[in-house]
Amino acid sequence: MSSSVSSAGRSGLVHLVGAGILWGTGGLLGTLLHRATGLSPVAVATCRLAVGGLLLVLLLAGTRRPWPRDPLAWRRIGAVAGLAAVFQGAYFGAVTASSVSLATLLTIGMSPVVVAVLEHCTGRRAVDRRRAATIGIALCGLALLVGVPTGHAGAGGLLAGAALASTAAAAFATVTVINAAPIPGLDAMTTTGLGFTGGALLLAPLAVTSGVAFDLTPRSVALVLLLGLAPTAVAYTLYFRGLAAAGPGIAAVLALLEPLTGAVLAAVVLGERLTASGLAGAALLIAAVLLAATQARPAAQAPDAASGRCLSHD
Fold first, then answer.
1. In degrees, to the nearest 5, what angle opens at C-alpha 226 toward C-alphas 224 and 231?
2. Residue 297, SS3?
3. Total-model pTM
4. Contact 100/217 with Cβ under 8 angstroms?
């Protein structure tokens, strides 16, 4: 039994690492899509959710996979749809109000903290010294890698950006926690496909106001499909699959692979150069990810009953 649990834990880690790396391509693809089409950030986010969700829905329909019938499953899908819309909308709102660095620093940095607090308060997993140290190392690394905001947006913009980024972090953390408890008859692909399609519908009014029309060139279509496929459809399916095995706390820390991968891709593809502090931050993030990975096995062995008890409200 312990061997199968350990195998499940390792499989969960592989899924989460894959998700984090694929998420790291999202920034690059989103930037290239914005340059090619002129779409606003919220329009890019809406296209990302819509294309990723619809690709999975088409795959589900093509394989004739039965739709969920349990009302609890549809409640979960609805929650994912709403939280995905809030996360994407709030994050890009924070970018617009303040800066990319502030939005990234708070959204990604606060997520493991919020997950840890939620798990501690619900009794699922206490915050011990090792977990606190891992989160602290990750936050320091993220701050060094992304950079601390310089205040170009002004005090009002920084406050608005901080509030929106905090909302995005809370939404992502909630998605992480609620999806750690599996629902019979609802798999990760169905959750992602139907949930993200619903999230795109919720975001559509905001996207329309900023403009969603663009020239359908081979380059723009390819970028839209890649953005919807790799860092969205595939990445979130992997993330949701890995959650139950590795635990939400580990998943939230491993999500920090996103800015790390994004920084490497920006340096290689866009020619951006990492400073000495950025390299130090990358090293700290790698250390935090490795520490989190070594803690995954105990999380994978946590009783299923505890998980169900803490998440029964979903």
1. 110
2. helix
3. 0.84
4. no
Give the Cα separation of 260 and 20 in Å (integer).
9
* Residue type, position 302, single letter: A
Q: 69 by DSSP, 3-state: which? A: coil
Q: Are 272 and 27 in contact (CB under 8 A)?
A: no
Structural tokens at position 67:
């739709």
206-256, pLDDT tens digit by residue? 888 888 888 889 999 999 999 999 999 999 999 999 998 888 988 998 998
* Residue that is written with structure tokens 């620093």 in the block: 105
What is the Cα–Cα distance from 195 to 268, expressed in whole angstroms? 33
174 closest CA partner among 242, 71, 308, 84: 84
Using CA atoms, how far residue 101 sits from 93, 147, 153, in Å, is 13, 6, 12
Phi/psi of residue 87, each to 5°? -60, -50
**Distance of alpha carbon 244 from alpha carbon 299, whole angstroms:** 9
What are residue 63's phi and psi, to 5 degrees? -90, 5
Phi and psi at 211, nearest 5°, equal 95, 125
Running DSSP on this structure, what letter comes out for residue 214? -
- Among 71, 84, 79, 81, which Cα is nearest to 184's? 71
Amino acid identity of residue 220, one-letter, is S
Write out pLDDT tens, residues 157-203: 778 888 998 999 999 999 999 999 899 989 999 999 999 999 999 99
Helix/strand/coil for 301: coil
